[in-house]
Design goal:
Number of strands: 5
Order of helices and strands: HHEEEEE
Helix content: 40-55%
Number of helices: 2
Strand order of the largest sheet: 3-4-5
Oligomer: single chain
Shape: elongated
Strand content: 15-25%
Radius of gyration: 19 Å
Length: about 90
């Protein structure tokens, strides 16, 4: 019976470590996205009606999406049409 508890403990630790690695990967992905100012300087043609738009398809309908959940302070701005991640924002925590 004690092997069962060891097995459960190992599974729990492995799951915890996998979850922490996934959070670290998400954060590195988010840090790889530019801020709006950098996005605008990289893609100066990506403007419509004075506002930034998607550099791939030109759509000006953008989604403000949390990185790991709806209320996350780390935000991704994504094109509504082609789903291309465009830039990142950081809400005040």
């Amino acid at each position: 019976m004690s092997w069962f508890y060891v097995f459960i403990a190992l599974c729990s630790i492995t799951g915890f470590l996998h979850g922490m690695d996934r959070l670290a990967q998400q954060h590195r992905y988010w840090q790889g996205l530019p801020f709006l100012k950098q996005y605008s300087s990289r893609h100066p043609w990506a403007r419509r009606n004075g506002a930034a738009c998607c550099y791939k398809c030109g759509c000006d309908e953008l989604l403000d999406v949390g990185l790991s959940r709806v209320g996350d302070y780390r935000r991704r701005i994504v094109c509504n049409q082609c789903r291309t991640p465009l830039w990142r924002e950081e809400d005040e925590a």
